[in-house]
Amino acid sequence: MIQFTTFIKMVLQKTQKLSRLRSLGIVTVGATALYMGLTAYHNQDQLFRTFVMPAVRLLPAETSHNLAVLACKYRLYPASKYTDDLNLHSSFFGRLASNPIGIAAGFDKNGEAVLGLKDLGFGFIEVGSVTPLAQAGNPKPRVFRLVSDRALINRYGFNSDGHGVVAQRLKEIREREDFNAIVGVNLGRNRDTLTPINDYVKGVHTFGPVADYLVVNVSSPNTKGLRNMQSKKELTELLEAVNIARGQLKTNQKVPILLKLSPDLETGELNDIVAVINQKKCRVDGLIVSNTTVARDNISDPALASEAGGLSGEPLRERSTRLIAQMYSLTKGSLPIIGVGGVASGQHAFEKIEAGASFVQIYTALIYEGPELVERIKGELSLRISELGYACVKDAVGSNYTKYLPSSK
Length: 409
Ligand SMILES: Cc1cc2nc3c(=O)[nH]c(=O)nc-3n(C[C@H](O)[C@H](O)[C@H](O)COP(=O)(O)O)c2cc1C
Hints:
The chain contains 15 helices and 13 strands. By secondary structure, it is an alpha/beta fold. It has 2 domains: about 80 residues, no CATH class; about 325 residues, Alpha-Beta Barrel (TIM Barrel).
């Protein structure tokens, strides 16, 4: 393995010295060889974990991210041949999802990789966050790998192609004959907007007709003032406006609206949020729990821990599961929850489900483990569900939520 990574490092150093044209040639030949290798190799899971992902980690984190999006965009990964077990089939806001595992927001920010992500076997795909006007986001570097903690810190700051471009992409994808994915759109707001609520209202109008669900994201830590929109007064105004906007849609009127929460909310703030969404005018159809955290619990590298931004991956896992259980308890199980934060195995996904989640999303673990992770999680989850005697995922939702409530710790 050391020899392999040294070799790749050498190739990269050499490549920098070559002319751009020759570099392009090398990249093209390399990508073709990789694709042929992937198609031919019988144990892709091991190939990814042992060679491909460590090699990809030699590149800067954002470059790797962009390459992964490109690989999905051009559908370089072979489509998964895995058939989802019947016990994974889930009703997803009125649609049938063949499994409850989705890709979280932030991977495919601009709706370029939808078909490739569907090929990997995800049951649903969340695009975004998308902002009304295109914006560049924060200065680079803005994504950091915390390898030994299986974590990432990012402060992208909503880099986005903007509503118009992303909506057009989604419209074209949906018009394809072979389109059969469930695609949600996560709505953000522009950094310098003077009318933040209106940014979300525009999002509902633009994406309502081309999305299977919408997410009101007021929980990313990298846009100043954004998380204050989770406070009682601001959230009430926001959700009321979003509900009115949905009511004005001509098509797809009942597009489900979900609210994505921060894992750093205090109990009092959670109670306030529940009081807001219990009002008819501010109703949401589901919750996404959770976004990244600004906490830095149990990080082994103090220099990286001091980078500003949202922490995701393993160090977030228990915190987000606790919040799922709290929200399941506070809403009395009345709202579907998408559980997200640090899921890297079927057991982790099951913990989110028994804490109260009906669906699960992943992101950071995919960066470390590679695309085969999707099949692995599905296989392990299906086995766990049947071992415990449940007929389907739905029967296990919230089955052990008290175990994860903070007071029972
Ligand atoms: C690089 C990166 C970018 C992200 N961008 C967004 C985003 O634009 N909008 C959003 O709602 N969440 C975003 N997230 C948060 C994820 O959707 C997810 O909530 C969080 O990473 C926890 O899941 P994980 O531990 O499986 O990564 C981002 C996460 C990462 C790692």
